[in-house]
Design goal:
TIM Barrel; 21 helices; single chain; alpha/beta; Outer membrane efflux protein; 16 strands
Length: 730
């Protein structure tokens, strides 16, 4: 009997623990954070708020339909048995059928109550709208934080796994040393407990990851599976600098509607006086028939008034006072919301400052711990004694330092997310916000916990250099230049002097564009074609490379792509040295919401042109196409085409920003040859262009970059543009 009960218990237990169908098991691979954010509007909480808003808006329209004049109709039938006249004792019996219909118009308190009902319905709709927007704001913020946590926990477990990988070998060596009397048992157990502690932390990390994934599922309404890698969390390009004047709470749903909502409360207050005094005006017709008897008809107009006895004798209008109190309540709650949000804004600024300080401290501490691992690893390989214990302690210290640094980075990212709530209009461009610290990202390499020694290099964040004029043109780095006006080079009277000046100014390559009139002339006139051939011969004799520059963004679209191909075929007989395509996808209307699609169209355009021409192809791109999630899509496809050069149009005069950002692009795209495009256009601001700073300032900065960037895939500089350069101050 006991055996039978035990068997039943085991069977039930097996059924309970048997894995059943799971939403997570059926989930899709987790996409990037940018893609997840677009799905928040389909999350169940947001959908519930939107459906609630739709209900309130329908009810508001229903109240509006029920306001104002109302039709009425009625039928009465009565039977009478009464004296034929006042003095007659004779009685008569008859029936009477009466029909009446008309329109009743609300007046006084009745009409005001209807208007108040509409205003209250508008308030409910507005509250629903505020709730829907607030839920969306909260879910986007929380989704970003959850994704950051998920990304961070995966990175932390890589470090833990690297630490745990050599557990068996280390514990065996420590056991041998204990048996040889070289290590106390208590010390051996202490080393073993470090592994157990990391195992415990690893379980906690997986639990935290599961919680993050669960929230992402709730926020998007979809099931996801998470692999061993997720893409870096990219955010709208906030770096925390210069936020002071941008940050605000006015755009948040809890504040943006305050004035409009208070106006509705004030209108309700204005209509609330003497609501008890109700009335209506009726206009109608009547018709009736007596049985026996004839039919008759009539019309009437009437006024009805109604007021409770209590309000007649009361000196206080309680309804008006209630509406007044409700208005003051709303004002107090709005003030509280504003104070609370202002406090959250201030707190987020301090949190970001603290988090960035923690990251800087963590970098320094982790560098020291990594150096200790390197040194102890070298000693362990060469010196007898307790070097194994010292190496193991340094490994554990490094692990804790690295995990603390990752926690600090996660805190900084979450603080940036929190601050992002207070940016009225977030930039469309996205980036990994901690790229400032990518110069030291090697510190978090799990291989530090392996067996091989490492070398710590000093890699300080680049500092901006002072822009000081340099008169010595010989020190200028070589550079290319965009020439959008070809006429001075085509004209035989100015061609030689123009080429000589290009060389004198330090340009050894020209990207030459032609306007539509010049293209038509080249197609129709042998004289124009002869001028172009003469230009190409003259540039070749002077050692100036001449590339054909074509730059209409619409050419990447399928319906216009053939126009570009035909133009390339037309220029094929002319001996250009290369073909440069300036087909900026972001110039196409609506590009911000379809960058992946347009990047794919650009790749297909390049594939087509690659089959049309034998010239080496180069192109210009915005830096975002070689960064973050967009790089993951665009970069490998572009690398397969093996372009001669990719010019990154990073228009900025901030040396630190350019050095940091362009340096990261070079490192992330090692299979591409990349040049840096800088602007001297006078139409741009001094933050973007050297137009007002002058030519010498630009060359000074280019010289600094020339020494700064890794030559393995850095090709040089391109200046935008020659006409602006000539007009700029020296």
């Amino acid at each position: 009997m006991v055996f039978r009960l035990l068997s039943v218990f085991i069977l039930v237990l097996c059924l309970l623990v048997q894995p059943g169908p799971s939403l997570a098991a059926e989930g899709l691979p987790l996409p990037s954070l940018a893609e997840l954010e677009t799905m928040v509007s389909q999350g169940p909480e947001v959908l519930a708020a939107l459906h609630s808003l739709a209900r309130d808006e329908h009810l508001e329209r229903s109240v509006l339909q029920e306001m104002g004049p109302k039709l009425f109709a009625g039928v009465n039938y009565g039977y009478s048995h009464e004296p034929a006249s006042e003095t007659s004792e004779e009685k008569i019996s008859y029936g009477k059928l009466t029909f009446r219909a008309g329109v009743t118009f609300p007046i006084l308190g009745t009409w005001n109550k209807e208007k108040i009902g509409l205003l209250q319905a508008k308030l409910r709709s507005m509250e629903g709208r505020i709730s829907a927007e607030r839920v969306t704001e909260v879910n986007v913020t929380a989704l970003r934080k959850a994704y950051i946590v998920l990304w961070g926990e995966i990175g932390k477990r890589k470090l833990m796994d690297a630490f745990l990988a050599n557990r068996e070998k280390v514990e065996a060596a420590l056991t041998d040393r204990t048996q040889d009397g070289l290590l106390l048992e208590s010390d051996r157990l202490e080393f073993s407990s470090a592994y157990d502690l990391v195992l415990r932390d690893r379980i906690a990390s997986r639990r935290t990851q599961a919680q993050a994934v669960q929230f992402i599922r709730e926020a998007t309404g979809r099931s996801w599976t998470v692999g061993d890698e997720v893409m870096k969390p990219t955010l709208p390009d906030w770096d925390g600098n210069g936020f002071g004047e941008l940050l605000s709470v006015k755009h948040l749903a809890g504040v943006r509607y305050q004035e409009e909502r208070e106006q509705l409360y004030r209108r309700i207050l204005g209509l609330s006086e003497r609501l008890g005094r109700e009335g209506s005006v009726e206009v109608g017709i009547t018709t009736g028939r007596d049985f026996p008897g004839a039919t008759g008809a009539g019309a009437y107009i009437g006024v009805n008034l109604l007021e409770p006895f209590g309000s007649l004798s009361s000196e206080e209008d309680e309804t008006f006072l209630a509406a007044s109190a409700d208005l003051e309540r709303r004002r107090a709650e709005d003030l509280l919301d504003r104070i609370r949000l202002d406090g959250e804004l201030i707190d987020s600024q301090y949190l970001l400052e603290y988090a960035l300080g923690s990251v800087r401290f963590g970098v320094t501490r982790a560098r020291g711990a990594a150096e200790a691992v390197r040194q102890n690893g070298l000693r362990h390989g060469r010196i007898a004694g307790d070097t194994l214990e010292a190496l193991q302690r340094s490994r554990y210290d490094y692990l804790r330092s690295a995990l603390d640094l990752m926690d600090a980075q996660l805190l900084a990212l979450q603080a940036l997310v929190e601050m992002g709530r207070f940016v009225p209009s977030a930039p469309e461009e996205r980036a990994y916000p901690l790229r400032l610290f990518e110069e030291n990202s090697y510190i978090l390499d799990p291989s530090w916990l392996g067996d091989g020694p490492k070398t710590i290099e000093s890699r300080p964040v680049p500092r901006p250099v002072e822009i000081t004029p340099k008169a010595d043109a010989a020190k200028k780095p070589s550079a290319s230049v965009y020439v959008w006006k070809a006429e001075p080079l085509l004209n035989s009277g100015t061609r030689g002097s123009e080429l000589d000046r290009l060389i004198e100014e330090g340009f050894d390559r020209v990207l030459l564009s032609f306007n539509s009139g010049e293209v038509r002339a080249l197609k129709k006139s042998e004289r124009a074609r002869a001028s172009l051939r003469a230009l190409l011969r003259a540039s070749d004799s002077r050692g100036v490379r001449m590339d054909l520059l074509l730059g209409d963004p619409s050419w990447i679209l399928p319906e216009h792509r053939v126009e570009l191909a035909n133009l390339v075929r037309f220029f094929a007989p002319f001996e250009f040295d290369g073909l440069h395509l300036d087909l900026e996808p972001d110039s196409i209307p609506g590009a911000a919401s379809r960058r992946i699609e347009l990047a794919g169209e650009l790749i297909r355009t390049l594939e087509l042109i690659d089959g049309v021409t034998d010239l080496p192809i180069s192109l210009s791109v915005h830096p975002r196409y070689l960064e973050g999630d967009l790089r993951s899509f665009f970069g490998p496809k572009l690398a397969k085409l093996n372009p001669e050069e990719v010019a990154v149009m990073l228009y900025s005069t901030d040396a630190e920003l350019v050095a940091r950002r362009f340096g990261a692009i070079l490192r992330a795209n090692g299979d591409l040859h990349i040049s840096l495009a800088q602007s001297i256009e006078k139409v741009l601001s001094t933050k973007e262009s050297y137009g007002s700073l002058g030519r010498s300032a630009m060359w000074s900065r280019l010289s600094y970059y020339d020494e700064r960037f890794d030559r393995s895939n850095f090709r040089g500089f391109i200046v935008q543009a020659w006409l602006d350069y000539k007009e700029a101050v020296r």
